[in-house]
């Protein structure tokens, strides 16, 4: 892939250039012929080349017109299907399932991208992303730790996740100011994501972590009464980061059932 492209800050571009890291990523993904793989932001093609070689035909989503032009010069439609535009607005249900999603996600929009991808979880086999290490640490954090928060709960509800390895700034051109990490995400079976009202779950979790230093009684006062806390066996003086994913799901199910019985 020809060089010479100037990285654009508005697209959060930092191009992977370390061959050892590239090999590690491809080993982790292990692309195989016939698999439906989509790469988010192929950039200068660091992992595009081995991905396409592995699966035979690759889908890519790219927003940068200069990079799209390079992709069209380098690859035939038989090798790569280019989807031009913003991954945040892309409808991944238009791609064949089961889908494998990979990419070096722009750090400035990584959280909304992760939630966007999560909405297609039922069509996804797995996802392997490079993200800022701080974000990956939050994704896989355990309850009662500083990194544990809304991102942890909402993604752990839907995915089994593992932080695979760190990527130093020197692996990129230009080098970012932060360390990156590779995270692997595998959707849980539908039977394990059986919250009665996922929108309510999201509201509860957002409220619980909205003011981390406040107790659940304060952060959830518009949703949970003292009677609800008693029924759930949850201490209202506890803070949001002390509850595990299952406890948040139990709370959402309890409040959903209560609302249904009140409306019956």
TrEMBL record:
Q: Where does the record place the Ribosomal RNA adenine methylase transferase N-terminal domain?
A: 21-189
EC number in record: 2.1.1.182
- In this chain, S-adenosyl-L-methionine is annotated as bound at 14, 16, 41, 62, 86, 104
The record's top EC class is: transferase
Protein's UniProt keywords contain Isomerase? no
InterPro entries in the cross-refs: KsgA/Erm, rRNA_Ade_diMease-like_C, rRNA_Ade_Mease_Trfase_CS, rRNA_Ade_methylase_Trfase_N, rRNA_adenine_dimethylase, SAM-dependent_MTases_sf
Reaction catalysed by this enzyme: adenosine(1518)/adenosine(1519) in 16S rRNA + 4 S-adenosyl-L-methionine = N(6)-dimethyladenosine(1518)/N(6)-dimethyladenosine(1519) in 16S rRNA + 4 S-adenosyl-L-homocysteine + 4 H(+)
Q: What does this protein do?
A: Specifically dimethylates two adjacent adenosines (A1518 and A1519) in the loop of a conserved hairpin near the 3'-end of 16S rRNA in the 30S particle. May play a critical role in biogenesis of 30S subunits.
Query: In its UniProt entry, what is this protein called?
Result: Ribosomal RNA small subunit methyltransferase A
Q: What are the top taxonomic ranks of the organism? A: Bacteria, Pseudomonadati, Pseudomonadota, Betaproteobacteria, Rhodocyclales
């Amino acid at each position: 892939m020809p060089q010479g492209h100037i990285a654009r800050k508005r697209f959060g571009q930092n191009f992977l250039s370390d061959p050892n890291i590239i090999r590690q990523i491809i080993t982790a993904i292990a692309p195989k012929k016939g698999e439906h793989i989509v790469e988010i932001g192929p950039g200068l093609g660091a992992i595009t080349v081995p991905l396409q070689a592995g699966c035979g035909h690759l889908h890519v989503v790219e927003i940068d017109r200069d990079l799209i032009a390079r992709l069209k010069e380098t690859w035939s439609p038989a090798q790569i299907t280019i989807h031009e535009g913003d991954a945040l607005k892309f409808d991944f249900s238009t791609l064949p399932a089961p889908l494998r999603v990979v990419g070096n996600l722009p750090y400035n929009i990584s959280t909304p991208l992760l939630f966007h991808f999560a909405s297609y979880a039922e069509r996804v086999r797995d996802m392997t992303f490079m993200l800022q290490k701080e974000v990956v640490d939050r994704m896989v954090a355990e309850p009662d730790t500083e990194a544990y928060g809304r991102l942890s709960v909402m993604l752990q509800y839907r995915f089994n996740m593992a932080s695979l390895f760190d990527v130093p700034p020197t692996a990129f051109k230009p080098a970012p100011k932060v360390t990156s990490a590779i995270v692997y995400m595998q959707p849980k079976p539908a039977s394990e994501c059986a919250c009665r009202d996922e929108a309510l779950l999201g509201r509860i979790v957002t409220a619980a972590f909205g003011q981390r230093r406040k107790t659940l009684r304060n952060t959830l006062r518009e949703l949970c009464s003292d009677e609800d806390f008693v029924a759930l066996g949850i201490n209202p003086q506890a803070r949001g980061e002390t509850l595990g994913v299952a406890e948040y799901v139990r709370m959402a199910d309890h409040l959903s059932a209560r609302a249904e019985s009140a409306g019956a």
